[in-house]
Amino acid sequence: MGRVPIPVPSEAGSGWARPSHVLLLAVISLYPAIWNGYPLLFSDSGAYLGTHRTIGAPPFYWLFIKITSLGSQLFLTIAVQALISATVVLMALRIAGGIEQLRYLLLLALAVLLLNQMPFLVSWIMPDFLTGLGIAAICLLMLIPERLGLWQMLFMAGVACLAIVTTVANAPLFLGLVIVCIAARWLVMRKAPAWKATLLTSVMLVASCLAIIAANKVIHKRAVLSPASAALTFSRLADTDIAQPVVEDVCKSEGYAVCGYLDSLANPVRGRQDFLWYGVADVTDAFSATRDEYAELNAEVLRRRWRDVLREGLLDTGRLFLKPTLGHPETFELTSYLERGSVAIWLSVKLPGDGPRFSAARQQTGELIAIFPTRFFAASTAISYTALLLLIVLAWRRDDRTAAALGLALVAAIFGQLLLHAMLVGPYPRYHVKVGWLGWLFCAIIWARLYLSGSACPPEQQRLNSNAPVPE
What we know:
- The structure is a single chain.
- The protein has 472 residues and is mostly helical.
- It folds into two domains: 19-223 and 356-464, no CATH class; 229-331, no CATH class.
- Helix content is 66%, strand content 0%.
- The chain contains 26 helices and no strands.
- The protein has helices spanning 19-29, 31-36, 43-50, 59-68, 74-95, 102-114, 118-122, 129-143, 150-166, 170-187, 195-220, 229-239, 243-250, 262-265, 274-277, 280-283, 291-321, 341-350, 355-360, 362-365, 367-371, 374-397, 401-424, 430-436, 438-451, 459-464.
- The longest helix is centred in the middle third of the chain and has 31 residues, at 291-321.
- The protein is globular, with a radius of gyration of 23 Å.
- The N and C termini lie close together (6 Å).
- The model is unreliable at 1-13 and 454-472 (pLDDT under 50).
């Protein structure tokens, strides 16, 4: 005997968002790009615009841009990004939050968008917007698959798949999240794992990884998840001054290409990534001919100084946690790209007609970063995390174990994302922003489950949420 304390859709498959609602939310989520006068760009955007052969950038986001832009309109690409994002947000609020009435659904969805930086991610020519959507999709698939119809499950799996094939680092993140969700469903929700959802998610993970490996085999002649991983890892170890003593010692007996450039690795400036951007990676052919040498060096550094590597990773995770916003001038996330880097070069080659609009955009004139509300978003993120923890406790006290499991899974996903990128790349704000926006989404979901049971549900669902016992 028991009671159902929270609102949930009355049957699986009822959580599809109406096209008109998706369109409205998508248009609102593009406000940064609309105000900017052009899609937002980052230094990596040039690589995605230019060619599928860029080392370190999975070719599938290049393909995504190619298809969605119709080869000429980048606004079409971010419009598709906005539609995908709006669909996932609305479905999450309806399916996980049990919100049925239109006014509550749209108000909460609008609050989620305006309280965080998700619209900036959606307006960006970058695959970063997909990481948070993939996390939300996996949480729905693994924790509440009973509320998903077949096509909804396939859609969520497709979103997670797209997130992996466009950002390789999402593969280990999502794998870890699947394990966390299985544990949360078993230990917190006291339910056995749903085998259909688990099988579908597992197939999605494997298929995505195989697609990346196959693409790298064809393009780079290397059957690996990331042909640039060895060079990027070495850059991270060199950037924190961990690699140098080991490399100097190894070079006494080995003739690695980097041994001729030890002076260039000495006294690094944290965060500047001298190895990557100041010639050493290029002159030693780190991304192709000598990548096996760098893999060997990485293994040796990790073997000898694993404590230092772990300590630096944890410290940088803390530093990244304190960087919850875009718009830091030193990271060039929202600064102009009029004369430097590959952005302007590839735009002039691929979309020469966009030159005037690109140059006149507020990002290029400096207005975007000048008025970016950094303090507001920093405060908003901190508040969302605090609220999330309080709501998890309330959900547990009110015996809404599903809400508690959703919240705990998100906390694990955010920490995993920060730890993964802090250890592999460094504490750059966009790695926090691309998952931090989920704080408000899951706050809205848990709050709706706890406090909208009487007003957001149809009469038959209100009856289920009353004190009437549920038949065994």
